[in-house]
Write a structure and sequence with these properties.
Elements: E1 3-4, H1 13-17, H2 21-35, H3 51-64, H4 66-80, H5 88-112, H6 119-126, H7 129-161, H8 169-185, H9 188-218, H10 240-250, H11 259-262, H12 271-299, H13 310-318, H14 327-360, H15 378-394, H16 399-403, H17 408-428, H18 433-458, H19 463-500, E2 505-511, H20 517-530, E3 535-538, H21 548-556, E4 562-564, H22 570-580, E5 588-598, H23 603-607, H24 610-619, E6 625-633, E7 645-652, H25 657-668, E8 673-680, H26 683-695, E9 702-706, H27 713-724, E10 729-740, H28 743-747, H29 752-760, E11 766-775
Parallel strand pairs: 1-9, 2-3, 2-5, 3-4, 5-6, 7-8, 7-10, 8-9, 10-11
Antiparallel strand pairs: 6-11
Helix pairs in contact: 3-9, 3-12, 3-14, 4-10, 4-12, 5-10, 5-12, 5-17, 5-18, 6-7, 6-17, 7-8, 7-14, 7-15, 7-17, 7-19, 8-14, 8-15, 9-12, 9-14, 10-18, 13-14, 14-15, 17-18, 19-25, 22-24
Length: about 775
Amino acid sequence: MAETERSQPPLETVIAGNGAAGLSERLVTVKRTLIGRPLATGEMEERLLPKFLALPIFASDPLSSVAYATEAALFVLVAASLAGRHYVFPISIAIAAFLTIVVLSYTQTVRAYSTSGGAYVVAKDNLGTLPALVAAAALLTDYVLTVAVSVAAGIVAVTSAAPGLYGLRVELSLACVGLIMLVNLRGVREAGMLFALPTYGFVAALYAMIGAGLVKCATGACPEAAIPHPVTVGAGTVGLFVLLRAFASGSTALTGVEAISNGVSAFRHPQSKNAARTMLVMGAMAVSLFLGVSYLAVKVDARPSQTASVLSEIARAVFPASSGGSFMYFAVQGFTFAILILAANTSYQGFPRLAAIMARDGFFPRQFSNLGDRLVLSNGMFVLTALAGFLIWVYHANVDSLIHLYVLGVFTSFTLSQAGMVRYWFRTRAAHWRRSAVINGVGAATTGLVTAIVVWTKFGQGAWMVIAAIPVMVLLFAAIHRHYRMIARRLRAGADAVLAQPILRNTVVLYLERFDAAAVEATWYARAISGGDFHAIHVPREGSDPHVRLHFSAQFQGNPRLEVLTAQDGPVGTVLEYLWALPHGEANFVTVVIPELLGKRSLPAALLRRTTFFLKMRLLYESGVAITSVPRLAQPSDAPFVPKRAVGVVPISGVHAASLRAVAYAQTLGLTDTKAVFFAFDDAEAEKIEQEWERRKIELPLEIREAPFRDLSGPLLSYLRAITADPEAVAVVVMPELVVRGWTPRLLHNQRALYIKRLLLFEPRVILSSVPYQLL
């Protein structure tokens, strides 16, 4: 029966434990200042959002697109003909109707999928894997472009009011992206509270501007916009193709509509009901604001400019500098800048959530499903920031250049999502399914038509890059899934083989470069696990101790004898050749014990011990070889430490072949006290591991410890220090290590073993044995 122990370890023990006292303390202090204290998994319920905070978080993108959607359509019309600007309002009505259809369709989706109704989930459940991956690739692309376009457009609002900053638009854009990431790393609730004022302020300022403009025009005093540095006006005609291009460009007003369906799980209960209501409010605001701005753009004759936004021209016309309401111009510009910058926040909610869902399904690197300190998906946020920053840098924060890459991804995902919902209603035949199927069917047909229009009108202006990128991304997702599936099958099948395999023996080899305090402790350990029957070898090289054999023999009276090997192929090659002559493989272990005396608490300095570092790296690929490091920090007295007992600890991440191989190895060591330990992030995970351990009837006792902050460092160090509190004891950590060949496959795994090695490198009286499980 597994032994279960619940404990909450100190959070910052890693600082004192890993030996990086000065620098690490400062880094942790900075991290806590910027991001805040870690949050336990049990606090997740408290982080759920009320509707008034969810609206600015998830709706800032579609609301902010009001600031540039009209201008995007006008830019296409004016480039063809000056007379074309009068078509912008009819086109805006068509876009508003389209937006209404999409909002109503997604409201159906939110009600049907109470946890996440994003395009990927809906398509996967109803259309199959391939359409789901296409939807995911399209959405991820759109999220990255949303950040780049929104931030660049926000900086345009600033440079419209302060032209002197135009030359710094790239630097300002990158700084804003970094700031948004930092705010989101603090947590969803904190982001909502920070973003609420700018979002509601923008809505209020635009309603005030539209209201004042409509009143002036109704009373016959409609102002005329001043257009600084207008763009070149075309001398052609406005044909069908131009109208469709303008419609496609203006359809950026729909970006971000799906964000609420991706984030239903972030709402307070009842989640579906609250998310649906929030979506309807968002739709009503977006439609009314977009139509109001488009109508005023025609009435005041606003046109695209090289230095000022159309919204800025309208605001200056409605609130001229000579009037008492001139301050409202700066309010409009200020809130426009704020919401355009914060519109990127929609992507900071959508991209990490979608990446996490795909990671759990095995189509994205597993690290993207990990929650950070503040219960946010921080890995997705880091990657999103890097990609968006790259686009801003490449396109020099130019909105007109970036906008052509936009909207194709979002309309592709819209179409697949709504088509999937039609299939959902026919499959489930839930209440009112016919009406719901009609709503989603209209949505699918409409978004499909607009997708075709976007492809046709924007293909030569950059949309081809998105079209080319989506299949490449789908192939990448499929390759990741194939890798994870192969690994899972191997580990699952290998578990039975490991349990059935009788372990015959464990041969111990002690590798010495010099005879020092670390060598004394390593020799004691080699004796302890071998019963005194072990091999001791030395490979002479430049810098090694020429008298090591003499010192070793004097200390241990020639039993065992230290073998001095002739270095014919370098130290690493020579040791490998020696090991090849020993029986090792599936049924026989060879333990290579490597003492390392470390001069200071410095990871780079430890890595500079090139021979032992490269030897340990090379041994990872040898079947049946366990690599044991006996690190010791040099002390002024350099007094040897000889323990009296060793306690074995096998930290496991699951009940699979790699962990069971480490358990089998630990049982060959002959230690009187050895346990497997699992650090559980939640109760469900703990119960699952415990049941599997009992089902397989594994003899080694299992302890389950809580890791409520999803970080192994604190719980693991607390566990080990409880052992080493005995001045005569050492802790022997037997670490399962999955070994795959090639850097690309390695990036798909969480490097847990490497993290623990680094963590324990400077931990006093801890011996670390790595038991590789090769999947080559």
